[in-house]
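[Discussion] Sanity-checking designs against the backbone

I'm trying to build intuition for which residues belong where. Below is a structure token string of 686 positions. I'd appreciate it if someone posts a full sequence so I can compare it with mine line by line.
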């Protein structure tokens, strides 16, 4: 920064000789011939040093410099005067209005060096002030101690952070702030570093006046005298409580699932790796479990993501309750969970945990006012029998889980080496399903429903089949859940519905006698927003009367979100379509709801029919269902009738219609047409 000097004298020749003298010093020199003029210049310019004559007409030098002091206290003020004015000048010096005075005539050399000194003084003062400002306003706490550790000064931030005022701190030892969290070693190392390198920095826990312990980032620097002795220590510190909390939060987020607060994949993998190292060293057994919720997608699609999330939270809670303290349960994502049992004595231990989990799921979960019955599919793999690496164990537990899924879920399987083929096959099937429709690999079969009073085929159920190019015929029980998960069910379902309507219309036009065709709707189809439009399109495309179409919806679907479902059923019903509740008895229907559903037909699940005549309670259940359905003016269809005895029983109970292998398996269209022509042989129904 340029050094600026103001010269004030009423005699112009003095101003010019001073200017000449000082020009080589490199100052920017301003001149004024009176105090007033000088003040005006000070108002406008940034001036460091003022040299003024004492004797001037209106305003003396002392008067001028006194008002300079008042208005521009930072300037260094010098007066030039004769000895005669000595008294006034000394007085001004004593008041601090003047820094120095020179006598006229002056000694050139002395004046020059003194002015240099004046500028240095000005700069020093300014620097000090800036430092002081930093000291006072910085958010870092500053504490200065002498070489013996006695606190000499502290800044306001010190007080803000520690709670101790300057008065309380000064004269004390920094031990005042010790939290007791660091041991002697810690402080010894600190002192070593200070002695060796003159500085130390690091994290330290200190105690505020309030007693609260907090973390700070501290750096201490030693200050040395010219002779190399430590004279002081300067400590700078910031409170890092918030930073620490954020770090902890970030670390938590990295290792835990936000929704359920269970450990996430990352943490699980780390723990698994550690557990395997330990298991190997100690030669003990460990288990990895894979758990996936059955039909979670259906629930998520029908009740919405919010309910889905709540369900996952509830599941996490049940899983946590089922495991031992030393075990770990993690959420891998979606509805997939994993468990680690780091030490087990025998495989039976894993059985026990799996049983406990299944037990935990047996009671319904209350979500958004719905009582949801959710079941898990579990797969278990053991270290070292089923794999020695984390990857192998995870893969095999996953395979075992798929095996459970394939068998309908709500159970667990221990991994077996023969399972691998099935899992690979499932993957292939999932891929191929995408192109099954375009490649015309899907085919519809029809299974007759026979009216027990007349012995006539009154209806038939449409059942889809998939002719896989390599795997042959694949059952819908395998690929419909896959189609649900992937969303392919929407296009497949639309094709089934339209094709079934077209087929029945063609048969009716050809003079075949049958009242209806029934088509299954899955959860995702039932909840699609354009369901009504899709059904209308199928009817108008085929020109089939709505009364000739029946839609089957499983009990499980209608029981979730009952109010919305009743509305949807009512809209379908208003179109003239018939509605059936499929697989009745397997879910958790409340009979009181049944009354409110605008349906026509109840299809009793074949699980109940199977056990008729085997001295089970099922007979009683079946007759109760039939009686109740008739009470509600519903038509009852029994599914899965295979034997004459079952038929006889159903007939006695007044069941309206039956469907099952006893009369006919599901048939391709041409065979179904033949059957419609011939009718059911009379002795079969008799
Ligand atoms: P569902 O609607 O309950 O269909 C009845 C199932 O029972 C059919 O199995 C049928 O072949 C079988 N069945 C009939 N009579 C007997 C019998 O006497 N004994 C035995 N053991 N089984 C019998 P399928 O065709 O394998 O279909 C299984 C399920 O797949 C169906 O159950 C239905 O939920 C679903 N499904 C089939 N086709 C479609 C479709 O086009 N769309 C949708 N969304 N689901 C379908
Ligand atoms: Mg059905
Ligand atoms: Mg059924």
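Best answer:
Here's mine. Compare freely.
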């Amino acid at each position: 920064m340029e050094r600026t000097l103001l010269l004030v004298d009423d005699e112009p020749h003095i101003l010019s000789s001073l200017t000449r003298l000082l020009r080589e010093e490199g100052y920017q020199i301003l001149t004024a011939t009176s105090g007033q003029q000088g003040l005006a210049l000070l108002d406008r310019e940034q001036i460091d040093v003022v040299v003024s004559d004492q004797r001037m007409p209106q305003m003396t030098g002392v008067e001028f410099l006194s008002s300079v002091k008042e208005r521009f206290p930072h300037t260094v003020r010098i007066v030039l005067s004769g000895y005669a004015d000595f008294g006034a000048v000394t007085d001004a010096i004593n008041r601090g209005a003047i820094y120095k005075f020179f006598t006229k005539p002056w000694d050139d050399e002395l004046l020059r060096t003194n002015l240099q000194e004046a500028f240095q003084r000005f700069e020093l003062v300014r620097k000090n002030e800036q430092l002081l400002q930093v000291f006072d306003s910085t958010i870092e706490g500053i504490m200065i101690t002498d070489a013996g550790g006695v606190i000499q000064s502290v800044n306001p931030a010190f007080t803000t952070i520690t709670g101790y005022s300057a008065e309380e701190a000064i004269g004390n030892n920094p031990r005042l702030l010790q939290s007791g969290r660091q041991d002697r070693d810690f402080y010894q190392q600190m002192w070593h570093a200070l002695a060796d390198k003159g500085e130390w920095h690091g994290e330290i826990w200190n105690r505020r006046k309030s007693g609260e312990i907090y973390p700070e980032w501290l750096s201490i620097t030693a200050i040395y005298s010219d002779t190399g002795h430590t004279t002081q220590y300067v400590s700078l510190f910031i409170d890092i409580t918030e930073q620490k909390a954020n770090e902890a939060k970030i670390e938590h987020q990295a290792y835990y699932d936000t929704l359920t607060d269970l450990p996430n994949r990352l943490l699980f993998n780390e723990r698994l790796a550690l557990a395997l190292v330990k298991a190997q060293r100690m030669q003990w057994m460990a288990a990895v479990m894979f758990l996936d919720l059955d039909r979670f997608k259906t629930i998520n699609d029908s009740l919405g993501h919010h309910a889905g999330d709540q369900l996952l939270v509830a599941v996490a809670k049940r899983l946590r309750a089922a495991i031992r303290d030393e075990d770990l349960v993690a959420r891998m994502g979606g509805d997939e969970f994993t468990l680690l049992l780091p030490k087990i004595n025998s495989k039976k231990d894993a059985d026990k945990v799996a049983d406990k989990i299944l037990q935990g799921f047996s009671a319904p979960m209350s979500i958004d006012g719905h009582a949801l019955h959710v079941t898990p599919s579990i797969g278990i793999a053991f270290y070292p029998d089923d794999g020695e690496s984390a990857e192998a164990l995870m893969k095999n537990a996953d395979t075992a889980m798929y095996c459970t899924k394939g068998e309908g879920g709500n159970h667990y399987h221990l991994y077996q080496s023969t399972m691998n083929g099935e899992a690979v096959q499932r993957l292939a099937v999932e891929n191929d399903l995408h192109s099954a429709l375009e490649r015309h690999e899907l085919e519809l079969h029809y299974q007759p429903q026979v009216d027990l009073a007349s012995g006539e085929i009154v209806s038939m159920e449409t059942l889809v089949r998939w002719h896989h190019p390599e795997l042959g015929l694949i059952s819908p029980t395998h690929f419909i859940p896959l189609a649900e998960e992937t969303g392919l069910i929407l296009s497949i379902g639309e094709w089934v519905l339209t094709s079934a309507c077209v087929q029945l219309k063609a048969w009716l036009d050809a003079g075949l006698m049958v009242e209806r065709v029934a088509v299954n709707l899955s959860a995702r189809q039932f909840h699609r927003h354009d369901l009504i439009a899709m059904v209308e399109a199928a009817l108008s495309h085929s020109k089939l009367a709505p009364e000739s179409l029946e839609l089957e919806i499983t009990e499980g679907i209608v029981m979730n979100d009952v109010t919305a479902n009743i509305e949807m059923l009512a809209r379908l019903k208003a179109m003239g379509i018939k509605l059936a509740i499929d697989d009745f008895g397997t879910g958790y229907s409340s009979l009181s709801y049944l009354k409110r559903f605008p349906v026509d037909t109840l299809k009793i699940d074949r699980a109940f029919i199977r056990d008729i005549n085997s001295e089970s309670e099922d007979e009683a259940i079946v007759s109760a269902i039939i009686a109740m359905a008739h009470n509600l003016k519903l038509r009852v269809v029994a599914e899965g009738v295979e034997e004459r005895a079952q038929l006889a029983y159903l007939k006695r109970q007044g069941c309206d219609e039956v469907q099952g292998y006893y009369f006919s398996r599901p048939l391709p269209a041409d065979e179904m047409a033949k059957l419609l022509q011939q009718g059911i042989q009379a002795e079969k129904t008799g």
